[in-house]
Write a structure and sequence with these properties.
It is a single chain. The radius of gyration is 22 Å and the shape is globular. Strands 2-1-3-4-5-6 form a six-stranded parallel sheet, sandwiched between helices. It has a five-stranded mixed barrel with strand order 15-16-17-19-18. A three-stranded parallel sheet has the order 7-10-11, sandwiched between helices. The model has no long low-confidence stretch (mean pLDDT 92). Helix 9 runs parallel beside helix 11. Strand 3, helix 2 and strand 4 form a beta-alpha-beta unit. By secondary structure, the protein is an alpha/beta fold. The chain starts with a strand and ends with a strand. It has 13 helices and 19 strands.
Amino acid sequence: MAPKLHVRSYGCQMNAHDGERMAALMAEGGWEATDRAEDADLVVLNTCHIREKAEEKVFSDLGRLRPLKAARPGMRVAVAGCVAQAEGALVLERSAVVDVVVGPLAYHRLPTLVEEARRGRRVLDTDMPAESKFDRLPPRRARGPSAFLTVQEGCDKFCTFCVVPYTRGAESSRPLPAILAEARALLAGGAREITLLGQNVNAWHGAEGGLAALVAALAAEGVERIRYTTSHPRDMDEALVAAHGAIPQLMPQLHLPVQSGSDRILKAMNRGHTAEDYLALVGRLRLARPDLHLSSDFITGFPGETEADFRDTLALVEAVGFAGAFAFRYSPRPGTPAAARPQVDPEEAHGRLLRLQALLADQQARAQAAQVGTVARVLWERPGRRPGQVAGRSEHMVPVHMEGPADLLGRIAPARIRLARAGSLEAEPLG
């Protein structure tokens, strides 16, 4: 009987994608995926280190695995991802449950590490090798009409609140031929939409012309819908701005983190841009693509933030009008410059977060209400929650559901939006 593998990923889309690649890698060695940790011979916790709560959730989950492992002596537990990279041997010291610790740039060596663990060793691999892990991963096939494709890893920006440069390493870009080869495999497997992934995806420099050239090349290969995330304002060059208007396959939705609307806080964060820079960039993007929906990331309670700084953030949000956003209270990460600075009172930071979230939720609701009565081209991805329903996402990345036949699945087809609900749209067939 094949050994069973359970992978649990936390955090960003990059992590979710890495989790899928680890599962595929282990499948090459005969491992069979299971949704139940209770049935697994190997549990992989693919971790996120961006926020404190995400890190603590990992150790909580490790605690819950303890009785499972005691009941199944042959079970092995691996901690992968950014917590593994940041904490290294401390993970092994903190939890006796863990057999393998492997960083995000070394997970292509997971099969070897697991075999060592099955022989009774506790193993650690947090090297950041010069060779590309992607050259050592199995070929990919699409598992549905929408697929992720990693094109860039790492970050050189060193925002003062962020651990990514320390856990993912310096910015590196996959070469264009390798990306196109993987895209062709995904298309052959039924993918209609590809989302390009990277910590700073628009810093991709794998060919002349940057990300705009890559988007054009993918469109020429026949990719019907293209997205990319996560971008940085400093890397949004004019060619990429123009691509949003010139390449119809590039969807009218962009996640463009800003973090704060205060120039003083942006400088303290080492963001490398001002609020005016961001607003000017948004103006150029909307000139190129008037129907563009923007989302962003925000932090409240960053060290030194005053009420005036926070009001600047509210003013920026009002000026832009976001279709969605993620907002969090500042969480100090050990080893980052901001963690050593005087902290904002947690209750004050939380109060600001609630005010910001209320404004962002109102903007999202208004953006979705504006879609009612319009015709959306929806990529129908899966059955809906109720019998006879199909579900997918619009060009603007909004979940859509409607009563419709199953033969819509895997296709891009229009539907009329009839109702906006919290976080989703209800549609009806045309005609």
